[in-house]
Write a structure and sequence with these properties.
The chain has 157 residues and is α+β, with helices and mostly antiparallel strands. It has one domain (34-155). 41% of the residues lie in helices and 33% in strands. The chain has a six-stranded mixed beta sheet. The longest helix has 65 residues, at 2-66. It is rod-shaped, with a radius of gyration of 27 Å.
Length: 157
């Protein structure tokens, strides 16, 4: 009887060792897969942010070329992972850039689109994922900044 009990114990122990080796090999593969998925999601969000920034700068160029009182309402799709949006410069003053700050596994990423016109505005309130309408208007004097002509961007109400 004792030998039968020892054989059951030995086969249970062998099964436990085999499963442990299998898990030891499988666990790093699962972790690696999750890291790759996070990087892919970050890359997709970066592309979507670049498309939104390009759409905003194109609309700003069209409206700015027409001059005041030209206006346009555009629809943009905000990807996940947006931390903040700067219009003009990193102080939301008058400048020539639209900057999307994205969260990524390696830290913040900056997606920038340039326009030759002076632009200003505040789109920080639409940094969450979703579809938004943005008012793009040519101004003879930019609001809330020094009085020079610019294209002003703000969320549509």
């Amino acid at each position: 009887m004792k030998s039968n009990s020892n054989m059951k114990l030995q086969s249970s122990f062998e099964l436990l060792i085999t499963l442990s080796f299998g898990l030891a090999i499988l666990l790093p593969l699962v972790v690696f897969s999750f890291i790759q998925i996070a990087n892919a999601n970050s890359a997709v969000a970066g592309i979507a942010a670049q498309q939104a920034a390009s759409k905003l700068t194109s609309a700003a160029a069209v409206v700015g070329t027409q001059g005041p009182p030209a206006k346009q309402v555009i629809q943009i799709q905000m990807p996940s992972g947006i931390q903040y949006i700067y219009v003009g410069n990193q102080n939301n003053g008058i400048g020539h850039e639209i900057i999307f700050v994205l969260r990524s596994p390696s830290g913040p990423s900056y997606i920038t689109a340039y326009t030759p016109l002076n632009i200003s505005g505040n789109l920080g309130g639409i940094a969450s994922t979703g579809t938004y309408l943005v008012n793009v208007s040519a101004q003879s004097k930019c609001p809330y900044t020094i009085p020079i002509p610019c294209v002003y961007l703000q969320p549509a109400v």
